[in-house]
Amino acid sequence: MQKFSDLPSWANYRRVLSDEFGISLEFDPVEHAIPVRGHLMRMDEWPANGVCKGTVILVHGGGGNGRILAPLAEPIAELGWRVLAPDLPGFGLTKPSVSFDWDYAEWPAVIAEITNAQQGPVVLMGLSMGGMTAVFAAQKCDRIQGVIATTLLDLSDEDHFVRAARWPWLGRLSLLGMSLTPWLFDRVWLPLSLATPLREMSSNTPMQRYFSSDPMIGKSWKPARFFRTVHAYKPSSIRLNCPLLLVHPGADFWTPTELSLEVFERIDAPKAFVELSNGSHLPLEKPAYGELAEQIGQFLMAIAQDTATGQP
Questions:
Q1: Is the model's pLDDT at 253 over the cut of 80?
Q2: What ranges do the domains of the chain cover?
């Protein structure tokens, strides 16, 4: 399997992180190719610093891949947690099963299977659409100690779906096509930069250009069927048997805080909400990036303490 670390995409991303945000990533993660539900998954691993307290699985959204989450992975690994970040089927360098039909339901199923295969405490953390994917996956897990999300967007809701599209008219037209001619809608392929407003991932111009023009992200083509199945995925209720932390960027103009709070209020779980001082959809700006790392650290510390004392 091709390695992400060998691609220009990784070097370009590191350069933007360093030049524009002052975030210097010290390590290349270990890359694995593991079979999961018939897919050959490319997955990054950051070993824990010191004695391992558990595993954090990072879940990317509909405009990325596992490596995009590297700025979150290194601080977590420094806290003594092993970090995994897979490329989900259809994205990144994962080789999907020959039977994969671009159904979004496969995403939470894959994350749940990876979670159930781990030893010790496991926490899921999702960015963007990965927030809800992490929540959905947690419902399928035998055991899980916590879920962290930067965004909770209910794309089964028509208003949320339209808001997430690159243009409102494109979202409304897509909903019409899904309803009237799903068989035709599913056959359409389009570049990711056309389907989603990838420039809203960041307030930083070079980072906007990276997301929009990178061959692994903005210039990759996806079938409209994937987005239709995202819209169709709607569990009857959402209940978690573990703590949920929503840490929403305070200056996310793509998916504002109030959208996430609508979903947050519907989730039955021990939960907490924190809004960062600033930060765009991918909150790398200061002080949001530091605040996010602090909130993650506090959440993981509480879980490690509960595990050590034998609390559920």
A1: yes
A2: 4-304
* The one-letter amino acid at 172: R
What is the chain's length? 312
Residues in CB range of 175: below 8 A, 6 or more apart? 158, 161, 162, 231
Residue 268 has pLDDT above 70, yes or no: yes
Query: Above 80 in pLDDT, residue 305?
Result: yes
User: What does the pLDDT look like over 201-242, one tens digit per residue?
Assistant: 999 999 999 999 999 999 999 999 999 999 889 877 899 999
> Which residues, 6+ apart, have CB-to-CB distance to 238 below 8 Å?
135, 139, 266, 267, 268
Strands 122-126 and 55-59: parallel
What does CATH list as the number for 4-304?
3.40.50.1820
Integer Cα distance of 17 and 262 in angstroms: 32
Neighbour tally for 104: CB within 10 Å:
24
This prediction has a pTM of 0.95
Within 8 A by CB and 6+ apart from 215, the residues are: 9
